[in-house]
Amino acid sequence: MNMDKRKQIIIKEILFWKQNKMLPEKYCDYLLTLYSEGEELNSAAHLPRFHRSYRILQAILLLFIPISLFVLYFTEMPFIMQMAILTIFVVLLIGAGIYYGRKGFFVQFIFLSAALIFLFFTIKINDKFLSGNSISLYLIILMNCLLWIAVGKTKKLLYFTISGIAGIFITFAFILFHS
């Protein structure tokens, strides 16, 4: 194996570490500069195909949010079919998040998508069975926010904790000023 081929392998590995935050960015930049001998790197060309395919998968999974809204509000599907589709989306998102999270990938958007679709799911159930009862809607929103806080604390996801706290404050503010 010649020296250039070895350097390319090392550079790809360092880019993998940088993308997945396995090492601090400063260290990765230093190592990349060292192994590329100061040459400008086109990082997309050096990424393995798996990473590009993961980015495509991540974009597809993020499309579940607008698809969910479309299914809920712009189609005449039966309620059970809507709930089945949303349940499948949430399960797929959580499964993908767990799978790729174990591999060290950036999965925050996947979990965020699952949380939002679950919120849509619970609001639709409230609309269907309690038809416009605002107290139950507020309780469902607060329960989702508490779930976000719990997930944020257990998984150390700051944005979930902040979103949950902000959601609680906004819900209480809405209740106070709307009544």
Description:
This protein has 9 helices and no strands. The protein folds into 2 domains: 3-46, no CATH class; 49-178, no CATH class. With 179 residues, it is mostly helical. Keywords: Membrane, Transmembrane, Transmembrane helix. This is DUF2157 domain-containing protein. It comes from Bacillus smithii 7_3_47FAA.
The shape is elongated
How helical, in percent, are the residues? over 70%
Q: What order do the helices and strands follow?
A: HHHHHHHHH
Largest sheet composition: none
Q: How widely separated are the two ends?
A: 74 Å
The averaged pLDDT comes out at 85
Count of DSSP-assigned helices: 9
User: Structurally, how many domains make up the residues?
Assistant: 2
Rg of Cα set = 22 Å
Based on secondary structure, the structural category is mainly alpha
In terms of quaternary structure, the protein is single chain
Low-confidence stretches: 43-47
Q: What proportion of the residues form beta strands (DSSP E)?
A: under 5%
Number of strands: 0
